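Re: that chain you flagged

S.,

Sorry for the slow reply, it's been a week of failed gels. I finally had a moment to sit down with the sequence you sent. For the record, here it is as I used it:
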Amino acid sequence: MSANLTPEEVKALAHDLDPKLSEEDVAFQVAVILLAVGTGYLPTLRQLAPLVSLSRPRIREIIARIREQGILVREDGEWKMACNWMDAENGNVAFWMDVNVALGLVNRVAA
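Prediction finished late last night. Pasting the C-alpha cells below so you have them in one place:
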C-alpha cells in the first residue's frame, strides 16, 4: 500500500472498499484504523483517535489484537502489515476478514 495518505484519503479508501458502509459503523471505524496503519499514515494512537469515533482504549485493543493475530508484525525494527489486501482476486475479502479479526469476531489461523 502507498504511504503518505491524508486522513481524507484514508477514509475515501475505506469508502471505496464498501461504499454502502456508514462512517458510524464500527466496521468502518476499524477499516480506517487498519488502512491508516497499513499505509503508514498514522501510526500513533493520538493521531488515530481523531479519525474514528472509537475511544483510545478501544483503539489500543484493536491494535493489540492485530499484533497478536499476526496482521501487524515487527520486521527489521519497523511495524508492517502482513496482509494480501492488494491481491486483485482476493484482496478485498482478505481486508474485510482482517477487519473481522480486529473486531475480535474471528481469529487468523495458519494454513
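What I noticed first: Residues 26-38 form the longest helix (13 residues).

Talk soon,
D.
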